[in-house]
Write a structure and sequence with these properties.
Layout (H helix, E strand, L loop, with lengths): L4 E5 L7 E3 L20 E5 L1 H7 L2 H11 L15 H4 L18 E3 L1 H7 L4 E5 L9 H17 L6 E5 L3 H13 L3 E6 L5 H9 L3 E5 L3 H11 L5 E3 L6 H6 L1 H9 L7 E5 L4 H16 L7 E7 L4 H7 L28 H10 L4 E5 L1 H12 L7 H15 L9 E5 L7 H8 L21 H11 L3
Parallel strand pairs: 5-13, 6-7, 6-9, 7-8, 10-11, 10-13, 11-12
Antiparallel strand pairs: 1-2, 1-3, 4-5
Helix pairs in contact: 5-6, 6-7, 10-11, 11-13, 14-15
């Protein structure tokens, strides 16, 4: 059976639709005003998907493909192609076999805080080192399809605080498509900066923050020679929603109680929520987990709105302050309305925040139990600790923290903590190297003093 998907306007009451191979980011009818008005969403024919297979048949299909070698279906994203982007021909899919990342059973960490079923979804164990690969494979594949159909696309462009640019550069290099990345100068880590440079992307470092870079991208989006890869392009979210599907699949389709997601531009929490809601519509799950969006205190516009009850039409952007969680240092998130809709649609969902002190110590604490956390995952871990302390998460609840990037991309974060050089952070778990002379007596004496008896 041939499936298809299309862009639909997210404005209530608007029925405008567009093909996925159109260069369009906002509804042409109601997408005027602020940058969030008239955003589009990839829409699927749910009835046709229901008619084509039973829930058990969908599960068996996904299991048969999962991490196998039949291209592109062994990808964690393209193994769910019918639910993601059926419009792309298999030959035009640009995949590095993204997805299939480990669900780390944080057994010791869980027991230390009173949980028996705590997991961390290591989305940063991917080709470019972050969850952005899951969405970028869909977007670049659609661009590849459009180019093969004869559309003139000069380059794919994104604004980024690091991870998006790395992912875009990798996928465009794989496909042989030019990439342009626009970064805030001196606000991303060196490992993040070197990734797009190494993959040959034209890299522009601007004297501004992420929101300023996004303003430049908004202007470029008016020129159809440049295809925009930021998360207001909802093709990205289709790939990212497979995080939800894959986690349930990894638990043999059993229910999950809590999912905690770091939130900046708010695309990932929207995508994960969409994945759970779609599974429920198709009968793949009966119960939705409680979804928690975790924001850094210095960049917490959704949290501020949540504190006021998420009133419609009352959002005011904030000037995001410096935060160790630089990838979510966003004061004017483009996917705000989608995130609000997700929070309202998934019962029990909430938004919480973490200070710089809380997130830094949460990262170091969890690292002691075998993880190696990026600062954005640390925001989610800090929120986890708060929910446990409040008694909102029960000891037997199945809880998943979404780890968004590989900690190896943030050496300054780790070094600054363990050398006690972080401002506004009172380190509780610092661990410094012990300098000694190369004498066995000093080594043995240190071992006796520092190791448990």
């Amino acid at each position: 059976m041939r499936f298809r998907a299309w862009f639909g306007c997210t404005t209530p009451g608007c029925d405008e639709t567009y093909e996925l191979n159109e260069i369009v980011y906002k509804c042409r009818k109601c997408g005027r005003g602020d940058k969030r008005s008239g955003l589009l969403e990839v829409t699927h024919d749910i009835e046709k998907l229901r008619e084509s297979r039973t829930p058990d048949q969908w599960k068996k299909l996904f299991e048969r493909r999962y991490l196998r070698t039949a291209y592109p279906y062994g990808s964690g994203v393209w193994g769910k192609k019918e639910l993601v982007c059926p419009n792309v021909d298999d030959g035009n899919v640009v995949s590095i076999y993204e997805g299939g990342s480990n669900l780390f059973w944080a057994d010791r960490l869980g027991r230390d805080i009173g949980l028996t079923d705590l997991w961390v979804k290591l989305c940063g164990n991917s080709h470019s080192g972050s969850f952005k690969d899951l969405g970028m494979t869909v977007l670049v594949s659609m661009v590849n399809q459009m180019i093969h159909e004869g559309q003139k696309i000069r380059a794919v462009v994104c604004a980024s605080t690091g991870d998006t640019s790395a992912s875009l550069a990798a996928y465009c290099a794989t496909a042989g498509i030019p990439a342009v990345v626009i970064l805030p100068r001196d606000k991303i880590s060196i490992p993040q900066l070197i990734q797009p440079l190494a993959n040959g992307a034209l890299t522009l470092a601007l004297d501004t923050d992420f929101d300023g870079c996004m303003d430049i991208v908004a202007h470029l989006s008016q020129d159809t020679r440049y295809y925009i890869a930021n998360s207001f392009n909802s093709l990205r979210l289709e790939g990212q929603k497979t995080i939800a599907i894959e986690m349930v699949q990894q638990f043999d389709w059993e229910p999950i109680d809590w999912v905690i997601v770091p939130g900046g531009n708010l695309g990932n929490v929207s995508a994960i929520g969409k994945g759970f809601l779609m599974m429920k519509e198709l009968g793949l799950i009966e119960k939705l987990p409680r979804l928690v969006c975790a924001q850094a205190h210095n960049a917490n516009p959704l949290y501020r709105l949540y504190q006021r009850g998420l009133p419609e039409g009352r959002f005011r952007p904030m000037q995001a302050k410096e935060t160790q969680a630089n990838a979510i240092r966003i004061g004017d998130p483009v996917n705000l309305n989608k995130a609000i809709s997700t929070i309202k649609a998934v019962p029990g969902s909430m938004v919480l925040e973490a200070t710089e002190n809380e997130l830094a110590n949460a990262a170091a604490y969890a690292d002691r139990f075998g993880l190696f956390n990026c600062p954005h995952t640390a925001v989610a871990l800090s929120v986890l600790l708060k929910l446990v302390d409040r008694g909102e998460i029960n000891g037997s609840d199945r809880v998943i923290v979404i780890s968004t990037a590989n900690g190896l991309k943030f050496p300054d974060f780790k070094i600054g903590y363990h050398t006690r050089e972080m401002q506004a952070v009172s380190t509780r778990h610092a661990n410094e190297a012990v300098p000694l002379e190369a004498k066995i007596e000093q080594v043995v004496d240190t071992l006796e003093k520092r190791l448990p008896a």
